[in-house]
Amino acid sequence: MKIYGRHDERTIDQLRRCIAAEPGATGVLCADGHLGYSMPIGGVVAYREHVSPSGVGFDIACGNLAVQTAIAAADLTERDFSRLADEIQRRVSFGVGRHNKEPIDHPVFGRIAKSPAVFQRSLLGLARDQLGTVGSGNHYVDLLEDTGGRLWVGVHFGSRGFGHRTATAFLNLARGREWNARGADDSMDAPPTLLPIAQPTGQDYIEAMAIAGDYAYAGREAVVATILNILQTEAADSVHNHHNFAWRERHRGEEYWVVRKGATPAFPGQRGFVGGSMADDSVILRGVEGSDSAAALYSTVHGAGRVMSRRQAAGKARYVKKWCCRNYRHCNFQGERERFEQSSDAPAPLCPKCGHTLELRRWMERVSAGFVNFTAVKRDIAGRGIVLRGGGADEAPQVYRRLRDVLACHERTIKVEEILTPRVVVMAGSDVDDPYQD
After folding, report:
1. CA dist 78 to 70, 270, 347, 420, Å?
2. Looking at per-residue confidence, does 319 or 357 come out higher?
3. Rounded to whole angstroms, how far apart are CA atoms 86 and 79?
4. For residues 212 and 249, what is the distance between their CA atoms, to the nearest angstrom?
5. Closest alpha carbon to 228 in 238, 242, 216
6. Sequence-separated (6 or more) residues with CB below 8 Å from residue 176
7. pLDDT tens, position by position, 76-108
8. Residue 98 burial (CB < 10 Å; 0-12/13-18/19+)?
9. How many CB atoms neighbour CB 126 within 10 A?
């Protein structure tokens, strides 16, 4: 087991359990690692005979896409950046359960319709509704400036509800339950779930995971296309990678299924886009050859890594369901669920403000304060010239390590090609809970 950086014993124990689940397995913990569900974020495990749905996690193929534009950041004023932030927030859907404001047709839907997993085929409607939505938590759309003054678009999110339900289904099946059963073991220290690759369920998972990967890539590309349309420009360069996945790879002369959860593949010459916190730099990096890289299973960080839990940062919360208008672009109505009680088979109520259909969404309300004063954080971020829309205390800069520090731990395995400074950061608001976040 190869460990980069410093970590608490509980996080390391998670990786130990994952490695011990198959004789001869090997693993890595990257410097941005922290506690995850069953397997730590920043963890890498190589199995010969199994694939691990709990290792890949619920947000299958969560990843990053960055594109360079021809726009010079110096040509944009503070007012321009503020206007662009508002337009991104208006055009792109952020938050749990959101449907795309601009429906998209894509070949990935044909692949979903032919999935070997019957239940995944039944998720086609959800997939259509959510393609191109970003979610919440640490998922974002950024405008960034490189060292040459060029403007980049950067996004981070994954396969949304489609990937979450796919992962949940296989975790249920592995435990002998119905695919859509509720109340599965969601303990952070749950033992790893493995599927033999020689069995039909293992093969079905591999294919379903790949479909969710295609879906995540299509979603990120769709969002970036929207941002390029807002900017009225085209991509001059592109770096696209994901970090919650299992790959068939050859290491030390043997074939493995390498499971990465919150870890970026970094084979020699392979480029990756890795983001920091909302006030920190992001980077374009490239993997390098060497014994250290081989020992790391050609893997590196996927971000800066949390040092504080969401509850510690933002305080205790409770969740309530509210009716919200589906006419997102023109109406911001929200109403308590009790005002619109109805039988389960009745049609959704209508918005009293605009007459459009309402939908139930889950919202987060704070019960007690956390360690982070987000009002002060927003003042500091504005003072750095960064335009922020959304976000919350649980995503504040002090919740994360500095990206430069975790990259330094991996300096013998990667080369930083470009440093990107944030100019605009757009995220879901702090009052939205999202089970699909990375």
Report:
1. 19, 35, 45, 18
2. 357
3. 11
4. 19
5. 238
6. none
7. 999 999 999 999 999 999 876 667 777 789 999
8. buried
9. 17
Give the span between the Cα atoms of 331 and 357, in whole angstroms.
11
- Between CA 20 and CA 27 the distance in angstroms is 10
Residue 185 pLDDT exceeds 70: no
Q: In CATH, what number does 2-315+374-429 get?
A: 3.90.1860.10
3-state secondary structure of 405: helix
Among 235, 186, 254, which residue's Cα sits nearest to residue 46?
254
Mean pLDDT of the chain: 92
How far apart, in whole angstroms, are the C-alpha atoms of residue 377 and residue 120? 41
User: In angstroms, rounded to a whole number, what is the distance separating the alpha carbons of residues 216 and 81?
Assistant: 27
Domain coordinates of the chain in residue numbers? 2-315+374-429, 318-366
Q: Are 413 and 287 in contact (CB under 8 A)?
A: yes
What is the per-residue pLDDT across 188-213, written as a single tens digit (0 to 9) for each? 999 999 999 999 999 999 999 999 99
With CA atoms as reference, report the closest residue to 57 among 72, 40, 34: 40
CB atoms within 10 A of CB 338: 9
What are the start-end ranges of the H helices in 275-412? 291-295, 310-314, 374-383, 403-409
Mean pLDDT for the stretch of residues 351-366: 82
* Structural contact between residues 357 and 350, judged by C-beta atoms closer than 8 angstroms: yes
CB-CB contact of 81 with 423 (8 Å): yes
d(CA 98, CA 267): 35
Q: What is the DSSP pairing of strand 195-196 with strand 50-51? A: antiparallel
No. of H helices and E strands in the chain?
A: 12, 20
Query: What pLDDT shows up at residue 435?
Result: 44
